Queue: 3 jobs
Job 1
Amino acid sequence: MATESHLLTVITFLPLLSVVALLFLSSDDHVWIRRIALAASLAEFAVSLLLLRGFVASSPDYQFQENHDWIGSVIHYHVGVDGISLFLVLLTTFLTPVAILCSWQSIRENVKGFFIALLVIETAMIGVFVSLDLFLFFVFWELTLIPMYFMIGMWGHDRRIYAAVKFILYTMFGSILMLIAILWLYNKAGTFDLLEIQGLLQAGHVVFAPRTELLMFGAFFLAFAIKVTLFPLNSWLPDAHTEAPTAGSVILAGVMLKLGTYGILRFCLPLFPDAAHRMAPFIAVLAIIGIVYGALVATVQHDLKRLVAYTSVSHLGFVVLGIFAFSTVSIQGAIYQMLSHGISTGALFLGVGMLYDRRHTHEIKEYGGLATPMPVLMSFFLFICLSSLALPPLNGFIGEFLILVGTFQNHHAWASWAASGAVLSAIYLLWAYQRVALGDVTVEKNKTLPDASARERVILATMALAIIVMGIASPVFTRRMEASTNAVLQQMERVQNASHRAAVANGARAALLPEPPQPSAAVTLAERRVQP
Amino acid sequence: MLLLEHLWIILALPLAGAAINGLCGKRWPKSAVNSVAIGSVSLAFLAAAETVREFSHLAAAQIPYVKSYFTWIVAGPFKVDFALQVDQLTVVMLLTVSFVGMLIHIYSTGYMAHEGGYYRFFSYLNLFKFFMLTLVLAANLIVMFVGWEGVGLCSYLLIGFWFLKKSAADAGKKAFITTRIGDFGFTVGVLLVFWTFGSVNFGDIFKSVSGMPAESMAQMGILTVICLLLFTGAVGKSAQLPLYVWLPDAMEGPTPVSALIHAATMVTAGVYMVARMHPLFSRAPIAMLVVAIVGALTAFYSATIGLVQTDIKKVLAYSTVSQLGYMFLACGVGAYGAGIFHLMTHAFFKGLLFLAAGSVIHAMGGEQDMRQMGGLRKKIPFTYWTMFIATLAIAGIPGFAGFFSKDQILEAVQSGPHANPLLWLLGVVGAALTSFYMFRLVFLTFFGAPRYDEHKVHVHESPVNMTVPLMILAFLSIFGGWFAAPKLVGGVDHFTKFLDPVFSSYALPGAEVAAEVPAEAAATPATELLHALTGVPVIVGILGLLLAWWFYIKNPETPKRLAQKARGLHALLLNKYYVDEIYAALIVRPLLWLSTNVFWHAVDEGVIDAAVNGTASVARASGGQVRKLQSGNARSYAAWIIIGAVGFTVLLLGLLGVVR
């Protein structure tokens, strides 16, 4: 991190640069618009892989940092990645070409606008993951909304306007609260820089009163929870997904939901550790409700895309649970689950989209017996379902199991309840698969449906490969996450200690003090092992 | 030590077979698919055999032989290697699985010859072998779980192989979901193991546990909880009460699948797991008792259902559930060796029974209802004789494989350290029922007059690639139990002796002494009674045979009259105690109703969404009102600005005051 590098800037703005290239093309030149967009996104992915080469796994610090004044000397362009954001950036650059490829033929109107929107979202999402300045973060955060709003509203399905407005209002509501909290934080700390704020908090130069901390935590958390679709803030998601075009759903489920979990991990935990600890039991309960409730509601859906949307509520519940269990293992599991949910659910949406391209419906009862006319597509679909229901040794298993193991260390009941989600996921996915793929072909039109085309096979095979790699080679990922995960937990502890010292020094409000910092991060299992 | 070092080869062979057939088999002729499928499993068997040969040269201190290949999962203190191990228990399982599996593969080339999706079938079957061998060779709970879930997946795929049939697709789904309910317990059990021992490796766990004392019958200790949770997984996978419901339905799959997965190998995974985890179970008496009770009850319960079934495969399915119950009964009374022994002999004779039943079905052109059979003895002699031998074996007739293993189990229940007369009684009655329903099956199928239309059904003996596996398994159904034969004449039980290092190495201190006591005890009236009872299982086995002969050959009208007389009981058994209906009424339908009407329509749409949409309409309505403020009058704007500013300041101050 010592060496000045512009790699992150390049990665962040390369998609925007290709937008400029697209602007020069005639709107009717669909072929070249698609080709350029795909080539640009593939180049972007290739460039982003360079991050892996220079990334030092053992370092908990932000790497590839870049820090310049932006607006005056107050707001900085400060970017960097650590083990938490590294793979989320890669997930974004991986899914964007896939999203472009899956829109190859299904998007026919205003093709140029569509691909521009997609690439702008890519820049915005990467920007969110790499920003180390709260203001910059907020700018990118908002920037993700607008193109997605258009994507749903312009290229979506029948009720797209309703869904798009619902999406934007829901998330804007959260954003405003977060903006207030960011400004408030600036007022207190005198800087927007995340690292500086953390430093001030750890040193005890800035101390929040418990109630302030709780409010601030709440403002941030609400904004993120809406994105995550934590129960009961989930009702925008099924609508947004159902109405969005396939690429929109892939990006939405694949990356955008993780902006929320990422934000929680990046801001809520290290900046407001006391509040996080106090709220953890409530949030965990909501997460568990989300796991079970999302799964149960998914089971009874008649609309395939809606069904997949509800599975996200369930899977993201695992992520939130893992984060608020405050253990190294569970948080690594949560990050892993973010990635593998991006792959699996993204792939599920791709499969649903391929069906939609053929039949223009998401109604499950319009399908049935598809394994006969399209064995290849349905085989892939089954494989993706298996990855989503966390079958070992596929990707879904690793994240889910790490979350369970980590959560179980401190909270037996939480983990046990969450584990029941695994049973439910088998129910909704296999039942859905049966109704779509198995049995006789019940609808005449389906008898002649073409099997996966070469383009679709490339997409599906790529996703399948990612599923297998993430299932078998998990240390490649977790080894790079560990240092940063531990760093988050240590920061929490230091900030808590600092605020307790301050509180003691003030000698006041002893009664208001929350319990002493709970042993979280560093506690290894060793202490808990077999008592003879 | 080539193969012992590279245990992964045993796994790689069937996996490669599955991949090759799955990707290319569609375009290949059947002979090519055959060579890949049979070739890979045969090589896997040879590799397993060679591994066992190398294993036999190891010194006792080198056992279990553990080999770790790469780190699969690592996060904080949680580390899982892809590691495999071999000990005596593995050897038994490895040979059984790979050999019986190979025979069934060969048989399938005949049985499935006229089926569509030939390559797909063998691809799944090879994949199953891969996962089953992974389960058996695993050196830690997580790798074992990979195999555990993987065999469940293959079972799902193969039960639903004829997926155009709704019943087949339903059965596959039911199997997967029901076993997953058990896996929920298993997962939590594994979590608790890691929490307690800080490792998931068998070696580490057993080392830690060997220092722990046995828990008492009075209170539930951590080990008891762990064992009960793990056992839940076994209940699902090995189809015990109350999760057995999937196995009879699983008969929708092709018959070789029933033989391999739902009789010989996969369903025994639960027994294997309990035996593997014996150091924990042995220290958890409550869990042991639960295992024994569930086993004995299941053995008895499903035998009663088997009495009246008319579908030849359904009889065998309930019989499998029942026999698995015996294996758990053995584990529950601490006779793990006997349980594994029965697991092995059962793989021989039940595999044979299914394959022979498949041969009957093949001969009858797809008919599975025994009421439409009869008199097949002369027409398909190979099938008849081999099936008859298997029936003698399962009935526990002396000299046949099942006799030795079942006898060991019942003996342990009767006089072992955890003897329990009630469970013994259940076991004995179950044995009598077993003998009865099995001979009923044989008599209905092969004896009497044909009950089918002889002009329409052309009964024919199966081809060689089906009969040869039958004969090999028939051979094993006779001699496969003779390892224990010397014991009858005062010699050594070679099977138990072979497994002894596994089951004694982590035994409780003093346990062996305790085990010896009953044998050494003086001849009191009680022990004399015990000795007298030893022969009972054999007697009831023969009684069952005779009774079946009386019912189905001597007086074929008796069953009907009896069914008429005890109509209620007959209907109860015929409908399998209505358990499926009860589950549907108590669990499935309420859950679906709750999900649809409460969670989805009421909570999601009724409350959450209504609140959101309500807010939106309030906003729109108020927006309509507020719009009137936009009067275009500059002075009124100025006034509003001031009012707004003041109001906002007050609000902010108020808020901050509250905050501070």
Job 2
Amino acid sequence: MIFSRKSAVALAAILASTMALGACGTGADAGSSENGEVVLELWDTDTRPERTENLKTLISMFEAKNPGIKVNYLGLPTDSYMQKISTAIATKATPDIITPKASDISALVAQGALAPLDGDFKNGGWEDKISPAMTKSSRAAAPDGKLYLTPATSLADVIYYRSDLFKDAGLSAPTTWDDFYAAAQKLTDKQSGKFGYTFRGGSGFFSQFVEMVYPQAGVESVFRADGTSTLDDPAVVEAAEKYAALYGKDTAASDLTADFKTMVAQFGAGGAAMLSHSIGSYPNHVAALGADKVGAVVPFPAKSGKSVLTGRMTTGFSMFQASAHKEAAWKFLQYTMSVEGNSFWAQKSGYLPGNKEVAKESWVTQNPAMQASMTALENKDAVLLEQPYYLPEFNSITATEMLPEWQKVLQGQLSMKDFLTASAAKLTKAQQKYMKK
Amino acid sequence: MAVITPTRSVRAKHPAPSRRAGIKSLYPYFLIGPAAILTLVFLVYPVGSVFYYSLQHSNVTQPWNDGFAGLDNFIAMGADPLFWRSLAFTGQWVAVEVGLQFIFGLALALLINKTFIGRGIARALVFSPWAVSGILTTTIWILIYNPSTGIGRYFADIGIGEYGVSLLSGSGTTFWAVVLAEMWKGIPFFAILILADLQSVSLELYESADVDGAGTIRKFVSITWPHIRQAIIIATLLRAVWEFNNVDLLYTLTGGGPASSTTTLPLYVAQTAIHDRDFGYGSALTVVAFLILTFFSLVYLRITKSKEDDK
């Protein structure tokens, strides 16, 4: 075979260019376009179509107010966004802005990925304009107590009920735990596939568990002062046993594996008369059933009179530490807290607005789920229960370790007391380790 | 047989140490270069990094604990009930899936190998599940098992069973519900491979057997089985490895639940490494899965090879 020098050089060139092609496939954009415009990259971790549309509109509104800054939107798969973010952190290809959940903050801060916002937040006068409860909740999500997530909006737990079914059954809106259990029983008709309540036995069970058990028990914190978990508190165990007894009796047996989407679909299709979830799903229920058929109440006070409010989880925006355009990114974050941006975003998302002025607007006062959440705060005995999202082990304990055991409890293979005692030990270990640090 | 490398033969023929000869001697390496680089980048490096991380504490949520772990991750498995539960379930899953897929695949292959009207359509129908993507397969089965819109609802409408019951969340039904869904996709694989071999069997052999008065069973044992044996060995081995590594169907249908009852070892790896972001322990679990698969594959091939040699 004849093999000339020219051929060898050509072959080497092809190989080299192939490798070069491979090498140029990645790498973050410097973030500036040719005309000097600053380009921000925003990654969203929740890609429900209606949310995506609203976020893109919010971006357009911001761009119209801030010529010279362009925001590129990228939606990440809701089920696996942390994989993409972890890869981006490892390869130093993070965007400028992200919309993490409060439960993700601990892991992101542990990797040094997020920029603290305390200085800008204070200098911008936002401490006076934003709800102090939301700011406190946002800071509580971080292991070092700093502000990494703008307190733009917040969720809150409510119990939704089908007001038409309640009326037909001669029931009024529940105001006590006894009312709730009585209604669940009365509205269950297994023969026709109608159940009084839909139970979250599957993914994300812990948030519903906390929403329904802690207020009933009147226990206001997941931990005692010494770092031991209150999961094994006798009042919590008693309330949990009563709550879990609903499963299979006044709920569908298939709720053993039900997640958020399954519950919302069941409530929307008329299969369940009550549902525990955050205010964020109110627009979905209205779209499925109509506003006249959806009522909402906050979880009721305990027998002691204490009102424990749960699910007050901040949902905002964060800035990556590695952002090359922190000033422009902060402008966007501020816009989401401003009257104009906050009003649009909170209303469209169904979230409680962080901006105090926006909270007075009619769309807040006329939304029953929001109204119930706001009114509950006026109770002088009301206390906010913060979940320990700052614990690095929180997700793995509550999801990977506790979920299978919880399902065993529902199946009758494990006692509630044993389940809560073992789970309390795990949370206690994590909390005491955190306290020592 | 001695192996002569191209480099040596070129040198022997053109011993002059000219620059041209030097470049020429590199020619084979240029040819294998791209494949070698791709293999290194996409196979050797990832596998090597898994072995490396299995000896490390590497948890994204607790980077302050990262560092050399020695055999800590492997020792921790001994006291991890989820590991042993997932390992036991993986064994049960592979045995039941491969066994049932083989039996039904063989039966289907024998059936559609016969001559009958509409055989072409029957073959297309039998093979069609294999052509459906994994996510579509799960979506189909999620809809079938959905308590509100699926088959359970229709049974309840006619008085069989209760409303609000899903086969995927019943303590005694979940396993068989996922087995059925996976069989639907796996049976065509066996049927395709076995049918391909069946069609190479000479009809004259069967005619001769008929002349000798052999019955159906005798013909299957003495003619059909020896012909398809190799295909079955390959098919069962491949299928066992794939079923062992099955994540997509179980993850999307049950998420490994309820109560971890359908968590295979690879699914547990996914939960540990991806959800909990504990790459050290997740890598150690992967190494164990890798060693188990390698061991059983070698034993299986050894056994089947010895039986072949005995013949």
Job 3
Amino acid sequence: MLILAFDTATDVATSALVWDGEVLGEQSSRPISVLQDLDAILRRGGVRDTQVEGIAVGIGPGSFTGLRMGVATARALAFAWNVGLAGVPTLEALGAGAPGAVPVIDARRREVFVQLDGHPVVLSPADLSVVPGRLYVGDGALLYREQIEARGGAVPPDGDVHLARARFHAQLAETFGPPDLVEPMYLRVPDVDRVSP
Amino acid sequence: MILGIETSCDETAAALVTNDGRVLANVVSSQAKLHARYGGVVPEVASRHHLELLLPAVRQAFDDSGTRLDQVERVAVTQGPGLVGALLIGVSAAKALAWARRLPLVPVNHLHGHVASLYLEPDPVEPPFLCLLASGGHTLLLDVRDRRTLEVLGTTLDDAAGEAFDKGARLLGLGYPGGVEIDRLASDGDPEAFSFPVARVPGLDFSFSGLKTALLYTVRDLGPEETEGLRADLAASYQHAIVRALVERAEAAAQATGAERIAVVGGVASNSELRRSFSNAVFAPPALCTDNAAMIASAARFIEPIPYPQYLALDAFA
Ligand SMILES: [Zn+2]
């Protein structure tokens, strides 16, 4: 199955073209230019749109705006190409790229998103239970490196291991279904600072 | 055929318009009721709903018109101004739909869109004209010379006209959006009962914040019981003050530019007193007054499209 996958939940957008587990192309940039990446990897892979059989998109948690850009893009593509869409939790893709490590995503407001007993949660970095000797990855791990290392955890040097690489979204994607069923994982209720229309 | 998408504020909209300006479908999913309990638009709530409503709106536009995506020749989308997080949902979807078919994309300025609501069939308005754009987000006087360009002659220094209606409605204990509620109540009131001053600012600009304060003081002086009894008069007088300011300034602007015609667009254009008060003006059709995507597709007929692949990293602007 030929899968086009991408994730825009964090500041670094990742994309990949994967055919039956084989990565045909990979690229990363910013959420605003994710289509440029998809365009480039399809062209480089010599793949026509009509050959794409499914789309996998990161559903967060992460930046609300980035997340929605990704899901809006994915839904539109799935609709236009009439292919199925799969939503993959960003934390799971991040974790799949660093087996054994704890994935940590920056949640802004001095909080992080982490996977706790298989469920994503939002908590203060101080409440993160750090296991001595264990690896922590993701932009949240980089941001709170000092706190994690002070408690015995290890954070690898900045690099690809901290990205939710889209090749893992393609790998983790299970059901490709109607685009409207794929929704962002917000984990927070909206603030109600209102503005006039 | 042009596919238009609009998500700048609290309406999620998709439309299909032919190259010669016929509206084939105009779908607007309003979130106004959702935001009513907050008395204004909550950006994060709006963005979440845009995402949920956009693809269904696009799908419905095709269903309503019996057309398909492969008949679309260009995709038009509101790029700004508006709530950036909300705009980015429309921009992301529009870019993806355009890219999926390697179509050109037309980023549209929301204000151009409102003016272009006048260029649609069956009664297109031909420039030049002086345009009053009055809505919840904007109060602008525009010199429209041709279908491609417009020049801003004046704007509000504080609240937009629609915002003044919303705030007034809140002071009078009415619902949201306030314009409709005040308009309804005002029909039973005396517009001369209270004299609410509208600040006269130099040039062709507007200022509505003093008006809101005047209403606040009046309501406070009257007390809750008397306010309740005089609500229709208060609404009528308040509305009268806003409408008078809009009409006076628009007519002054028309005189200054030598425009022979005044055109009124935007949500406030549906106000009944405003419609009565201009002696000689054209109004956008009511269905096209509030934010919609037909006006965005209409504007795109007169803008040079961006060819594939140059739009793939296109951003929105506030
Ligand atoms: Zn508007």
